[in-house]
Fold this protein.
Amino acid sequence: MGFQQEVGSGPFDVALAADGTAWVSNGLGKPPSSVAKYALVNGVLEQQFRRFLGQGLRGLSVDSLGNAWVASQTDSMVYVVRPDGSEIGPFNGGGMKGPWDTAVDGDENVWVANFGPLEPGTNFSGRLTKLCGHARRCPIGKDVGDPISPDNGYTLPSAGNEVLLHNGDPLYGPDRPPSFIPMMRQTGLVIDQAGNIWTINNWKPNFDNDALLNPGGDGIVIFVGLAPPARHH
Protein backbone atom coordinates (compact mmCIF):
# COMPACT_ATOMS: atom_id res chain seq x y z
CA MET A 1 0.00 0.00 0.00
CA GLY A 2 1.05 3.62 -0.33
CA PHE A 3 -0.08 7.20 -0.65
CA GLN A 4 0.68 9.31 -3.70
CA GLN A 5 1.72 12.77 -2.64
CA GLU A 6 1.84 15.67 -5.07
CA VAL A 7 4.34 14.89 -7.81
CA GLY A 8 7.55 16.77 -7.10
CA SER A 9 6.93 17.20 -3.37
CA GLY A 10 10.30 15.58 -2.63
CA PRO A 11 9.82 13.53 0.57
CA PHE A 12 12.99 13.56 2.68
CA ASP A 13 12.45 11.97 6.10
CA VAL A 14 9.89 9.97 8.08
CA ALA A 15 9.34 9.57 11.83
CA LEU A 16 6.87 7.48 13.82
CA ALA A 17 4.85 8.82 16.74
CA ALA A 18 3.86 6.78 19.80
CA ASP A 19 0.30 6.47 18.49
CA GLY A 20 1.50 4.78 15.32
CA THR A 21 1.05 7.74 13.00
CA ALA A 22 3.85 8.65 10.62
CA TRP A 23 5.21 12.11 9.85
CA VAL A 24 6.90 12.93 6.55
CA SER A 25 8.96 16.00 5.64
CA ASN A 26 8.84 17.16 2.03
CA GLY A 27 11.65 19.47 1.02
CA LEU A 28 13.77 18.02 -1.77
CA GLY A 29 11.35 18.81 -4.56
CA LYS A 30 9.88 21.99 -5.93
CA PRO A 31 8.54 24.58 -3.44
CA PRO A 32 6.61 24.79 -1.25
CA SER A 33 7.99 22.57 1.49
CA SER A 34 5.52 20.72 3.70
CA VAL A 35 5.01 18.31 6.59
CA ALA A 36 2.41 15.56 6.20
CA LYS A 37 0.95 13.18 8.77
CA TYR A 38 -0.33 9.71 7.91
CA ALA A 39 -2.30 7.00 9.69
CA LEU A 40 -3.18 3.43 8.81
CA VAL A 41 -6.97 3.23 9.00
CA ASN A 42 -8.73 -0.09 8.31
CA GLY A 43 -5.82 -1.23 6.23
CA VAL A 44 -5.67 1.98 4.20
CA LEU A 45 -2.96 4.64 4.46
CA GLU A 46 -4.65 8.00 4.92
CA GLN A 47 -3.16 11.50 4.93
CA GLN A 48 -4.52 13.29 7.99
CA PHE A 49 -3.17 16.67 6.93
CA ARG A 50 -0.39 18.39 5.02
CA ARG A 51 0.98 21.68 6.34
CA PHE A 52 3.06 24.02 4.20
CA LEU A 53 5.93 25.67 6.06
CA GLY A 54 9.65 26.35 5.97
CA GLN A 55 12.11 26.20 3.10
CA GLY A 56 14.04 23.07 2.18
CA LEU A 57 12.76 20.81 4.95
CA ARG A 58 15.08 17.99 6.01
CA GLY A 59 15.03 15.63 9.03
CA LEU A 60 12.32 15.51 11.67
CA SER A 61 11.63 13.80 15.00
CA VAL A 62 8.59 13.40 17.24
CA ASP A 63 8.52 14.15 20.98
CA SER A 64 6.48 12.47 23.73
CA LEU A 65 3.59 14.93 23.22
CA GLY A 66 3.34 13.95 19.57
CA ASN A 67 4.84 17.20 18.25
CA ALA A 68 7.02 16.94 15.15
CA TRP A 69 10.25 18.99 15.15
CA VAL A 70 11.46 19.53 11.59
CA ALA A 71 14.71 21.11 10.35
CA SER A 72 14.28 23.78 7.69
CA GLN A 73 17.66 24.19 6.02
CA THR A 74 17.22 27.13 3.68
CA ASP A 75 15.78 29.60 6.21
CA SER A 76 17.80 28.24 9.20
CA MET A 77 14.77 27.47 11.35
CA VAL A 78 13.22 24.57 13.23
CA TYR A 79 9.45 24.32 12.93
CA VAL A 80 7.16 22.43 15.30
CA VAL A 81 3.84 20.95 14.24
CA ARG A 82 1.35 19.73 16.83
CA PRO A 83 -0.59 16.47 16.35
CA ASP A 84 -3.61 18.48 15.15
CA GLY A 85 -1.56 20.25 12.47
CA SER A 86 -1.22 23.63 14.19
CA GLU A 87 2.22 25.21 14.26
CA ILE A 88 4.58 26.31 17.06
CA GLY A 89 7.53 28.53 16.31
CA PRO A 90 9.61 28.69 14.21
CA PHE A 91 12.78 28.73 16.30
CA ASN A 92 16.49 29.40 15.80
CA GLY A 93 19.54 30.55 17.77
CA GLY A 94 22.06 28.54 19.76
CA GLY A 95 24.41 28.22 16.79
CA MET A 96 21.74 27.12 14.33
CA LYS A 97 22.78 27.52 10.69
CA GLY A 98 21.33 25.41 7.90
CA PRO A 99 19.74 22.75 10.18
CA TRP A 100 19.54 19.27 8.64
CA ASP A 101 18.23 16.90 11.30
CA THR A 102 16.69 16.80 14.78
CA ALA A 103 16.60 14.36 17.71
CA VAL A 104 14.77 14.39 21.05
CA ASP A 105 16.60 13.42 24.25
CA GLY A 106 15.27 11.93 27.49
CA ASP A 107 14.48 15.36 28.97
CA GLU A 108 12.55 16.37 25.83
CA ASN A 109 15.32 18.73 24.72
CA VAL A 110 15.68 18.89 20.95
CA TRP A 111 19.10 18.57 19.34
CA VAL A 112 19.78 19.92 15.87
CA ALA A 113 22.51 18.88 13.43
CA ASN A 114 23.61 21.85 11.32
CA PHE A 115 24.79 21.67 7.73
CA GLY A 116 25.86 25.31 7.60
CA PRO A 117 25.71 28.03 4.94
CA LEU A 118 25.26 27.24 1.26
CA GLU A 119 26.89 30.40 -0.08
CA PRO A 120 29.83 29.72 -2.46
CA GLY A 121 33.26 30.07 -0.92
CA THR A 122 32.10 29.58 2.65
CA ASN A 123 33.76 27.43 5.28
CA PHE A 124 31.72 26.04 8.15
CA SER A 125 32.73 24.78 11.56
CA GLY A 126 30.18 22.07 12.38
CA ARG A 127 28.02 22.41 15.45
CA LEU A 128 25.03 21.06 17.31
CA THR A 129 22.18 23.22 18.60
CA LYS A 130 20.10 22.39 21.67
CA LEU A 131 16.55 23.73 22.08
CA CYS A 132 14.18 23.44 25.02
CA GLY A 133 11.41 21.07 23.98
CA HIS A 134 9.11 20.85 27.01
CA ALA A 135 7.86 23.83 29.05
CA ARG A 136 8.07 21.99 32.39
CA ARG A 137 11.71 21.05 31.80
CA CYS A 138 13.09 24.31 30.43
CA PRO A 139 15.84 26.08 32.39
CA ILE A 140 14.73 29.10 34.39
CA GLY A 141 13.92 31.97 32.07
CA LYS A 142 13.57 29.74 29.01
CA ASP A 143 10.49 28.66 27.09
CA VAL A 144 9.73 26.00 24.48
CA GLY A 145 11.95 26.48 21.45
CA ASP A 146 14.46 28.72 23.19
CA PRO A 147 18.12 27.78 22.61
CA ILE A 148 19.96 26.14 25.50
CA SER A 149 23.25 25.67 23.66
CA PRO A 150 25.85 28.50 23.49
CA ASP A 151 25.61 31.10 20.72
CA ASN A 152 28.13 29.09 18.67
CA GLY A 153 26.52 25.76 19.48
CA TYR A 154 28.42 22.66 20.61
CA THR A 155 31.39 22.02 18.37
CA LEU A 156 34.73 20.24 18.22
CA PRO A 157 37.95 22.29 18.27
CA SER A 158 40.91 21.18 16.18
CA ALA A 159 43.52 22.03 18.85
CA GLY A 160 45.69 23.16 15.94
CA ASN A 161 45.90 19.71 14.34
CA GLU A 162 45.26 19.27 10.63
CA VAL A 163 42.34 16.99 9.73
CA LEU A 164 43.66 13.77 8.17
CA LEU A 165 41.92 10.81 6.58
CA HIS A 166 42.34 7.25 7.87
CA ASN A 167 45.37 6.72 5.62
CA GLY A 168 47.10 9.89 6.78
CA ASP A 169 46.28 11.97 3.70
CA PRO A 170 45.06 15.54 4.20
CA LEU A 171 41.28 15.94 4.07
CA TYR A 172 41.37 17.51 0.61
CA GLY A 173 44.09 15.23 -0.69
CA PRO A 174 47.89 15.45 -1.12
CA ASP A 175 49.26 18.86 -2.03
CA ARG A 176 45.94 20.51 -1.28
CA PRO A 177 45.29 23.28 1.29
CA PRO A 178 45.02 21.89 4.83
CA SER A 179 41.78 21.89 6.82
CA PHE A 180 41.61 22.46 10.55
CA ILE A 181 37.86 21.85 10.90
CA PRO A 182 37.33 18.33 12.31
CA MET A 183 33.57 18.76 12.84
CA MET A 184 32.19 19.49 9.41
CA ARG A 185 28.74 19.72 7.84
CA GLN A 186 26.34 17.59 9.86
CA THR A 187 23.56 15.66 8.12
CA GLY A 188 22.19 13.43 10.86
CA LEU A 189 22.31 12.65 14.57
CA VAL A 190 20.99 10.07 17.03
CA ILE A 191 21.09 9.80 20.82
CA ASP A 192 21.79 6.38 22.29
CA GLN A 193 20.70 4.86 25.62
CA ALA A 194 23.89 6.08 27.31
CA GLY A 195 23.26 9.70 26.34
CA ASN A 196 25.95 9.79 23.66
CA ILE A 197 25.17 11.92 20.62
CA TRP A 198 26.34 10.41 17.33
CA THR A 199 26.49 12.96 14.52
CA ILE A 200 27.53 12.51 10.89
CA ASN A 201 30.40 14.37 9.17
CA ASN A 202 28.88 13.93 5.75
CA TRP A 203 30.30 16.90 3.83
CA LYS A 204 33.65 18.66 3.98
CA PRO A 205 33.75 22.23 5.33
CA ASN A 206 34.28 24.29 2.13
CA PHE A 207 30.98 24.18 0.28
CA ASP A 208 32.19 25.86 -2.92
CA ASN A 209 35.08 23.42 -3.36
CA ASP A 210 33.16 20.35 -2.22
CA ALA A 211 30.06 20.90 -4.33
CA LEU A 212 32.23 20.73 -7.46
CA LEU A 213 34.68 18.02 -6.41
CA ASN A 214 34.39 15.29 -3.76
CA PRO A 215 32.04 16.39 -0.96
CA GLY A 216 32.47 13.30 1.22
CA GLY A 217 33.23 13.89 4.90
CA ASP A 218 35.56 11.88 7.12
CA GLY A 219 33.36 9.99 9.57
CA ILE A 220 31.33 10.36 12.76
CA VAL A 221 31.70 12.62 15.79
CA ILE A 222 30.52 11.32 19.18
CA PHE A 223 29.74 13.65 22.09
CA VAL A 224 30.03 11.31 25.06
CA GLY A 225 27.22 11.61 27.59
CA LEU A 226 26.22 15.11 26.46
CA ALA A 227 22.46 14.39 26.42
CA PRO A 228 20.04 12.63 28.76
CA PRO A 229 19.50 9.14 27.29
CA ALA A 230 16.78 8.97 24.70
CA ARG A 231 13.49 7.40 25.66
CA HIS A 232 12.00 4.85 23.31
CA HIS A 233 8.24 4.79 22.81
